[in-house]
Amino acid sequence: MGAWLRGGASSDDLLAHVDAGHEHMVQVVTGLPDADGALPLGLALGTLRHLGISGVASALPAPGDPVGLRGPAAFNAAALEAGEAVLFEGTGVGPDAVLNVRHRTPAPLPGATSDRDRESVERALLCLDIVGLARTTPAGALTAADMRRRDVVLDSLDRAARRTLVATCR
Fold first, then answer.
1. Which of 19, 21, 119, 156 has an alpha carbon 20 to 30 Å from 149's alpha carbon atom?
2. Residue 159: what pLDDT?
3. How many CA atoms lie within 13 A of 114 on its CB side?
4. How far apart are CA 160 and CA 28, in angstroms?
5. Measured between alpha carbons, how far is residue 77 from residues 82, 159, 160 in Å?
6. Which of 152, 115, 110, 114 lies closest to 135 in space, CA to CA?
7. Among 59, 77, 56, 75, which Cα is nearest to 67's?
8. pLDDT recorded at residue 160
9. What is the C-alpha end-to-end distance of the chain, expressed in Å?
10. Span 131-159, mean pLDDT?
11. Mean predicted confidence (pLDDT) in 44-58
């Protein structure tokens, strides 16, 4: 799909490659805006391009091993049931919240901000985003004790990030 994104392959080439050896399967895309249900991949490509697709990531989850999944819960459940999913980066479809944490825009700080303070603010904001994302993402198959430990760690990270912002933005 990367070649298609860069303009090095046509949609027909992409579809032929995806279908190779899987002619009995239908590749569909769900969750696209203004689409009723699932669209065949061929029809979804134009919508993805219009939505600003910038990358693709795959997920190959199995029960107890959600490798590649990045939320939300309904998406994760469907991907787990299917055993696979493709995430379309930059489209607002799937787990863009996690991708936004990875590809951040710099904080709008005054030009006179020191490099050290700028880095502290950036890291604190990143920590707050991670805490927010973790709190809105289901914890999965954790035990009650694991969930308490997770909450303690998230509370600690949240507190440290807020204190850093207060100390740095004086």
1. 119
2. 92
3. 6
4. 43
5. 9, 32, 33
6. 152
7. 59
8. 93
9. 47
10. 78
11. 84
Q: For every residue of 133-149, which 3-state class applies, written as one string?
A: HHHHCCCCCCCHHHHHH
Q: Residue 142 is encoded by which pair of tokens?
A: 């954790």
The mean pLDDT value for 6-28 works out to 74
pLDDT in tens, 23-36: 555 677 777 777 77
pTM for the predicted model, two decimal places: 0.47
The token duo for 29 is 């895309």
* Interstrand relation of 85-89 and 55-59 (parallel, antiparallel or unpaired): antiparallel
Buried-state track 49-61, b at ≥16 Cβ within 10 A, e below 16: eebebeebbebeb
Whole-number pLDDT of residue 99: 47
Q: How far is CA 63 from CA 76, 87, 135, in A?
A: 11, 19, 22
Dump pLDDT digits (tens) for 110-121: 888 888 998 898
